[in-house]
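As noted in the main text, all predictions were made from sequence alone. Below is one such record, for GntR family transcriptional regulator.
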Amino acid sequence: MGKYQTKYEKLIANEPVLNKRAYNIIKHRIIFDQLHPGQRLSVARLAEELSISRTPVAVALSTLERDGYVVVYPQRGTFVRELTPFELEIIFHARSALGKLVIQSAGHLIDRSELEVFYGEFKRFRSMKYINNADLMELFYIDVEFHRLLDECIPGIIHDETKVIADLTMNSRYLAYRSRFGGASDETIKELCCDHHIQIIECLLKNDVEKAAEAFVTDVECGWKGTKL
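Prediction:
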């Protein structure tokens, strides 16, 4: 397990507020295909697995319904929701538009030292001759953390809504990474996963937020196409 995956999973597991911890863990399982579309979720079973009472789990499931991860059918129960291709397309378009606005409005506030760290990471992967499956999954978590950095420069309430949209793209992006983008070549994978991020960072380091925003849109559009390979 790479350091970015470790960091991501620690943030989920160490949340002190129980209903938020339950929300994070259940959402994580949905995103990473441990809970599947159409699968019925039991409050009692989840509470037992998470070693917490049923109330935080029930609250978490209610929030997950609001955010688009589960659906509740009266008299039947709560099930993992499957997003339709049309819904996913709209979500990716919304992600693109919001991210562009974020960079245009607040890109100058993003920490330069952190940008340089991510620049080094993407350059490192770009220079690899071969990318094995473990490398690719670490690159996925770097991708996730990089986009979180971009979103952190905006006010809290806007950040929270942007995060909901961004996270809804994660399952399809994870599955694309896991399948190596439908068996794409290493060179294609490096183009999809590294080149646009490198361009975003280079533009931000030059304080060219307009070009950075354009590169972000290209990145998200390629991400959407990558989920369909």
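The beta strands are 40-41, 70-73, 77-80. The radius of gyration is 18 Å. These features were considered when defining construct boundaries for the mutagenesis experiments described in Section 2.9.
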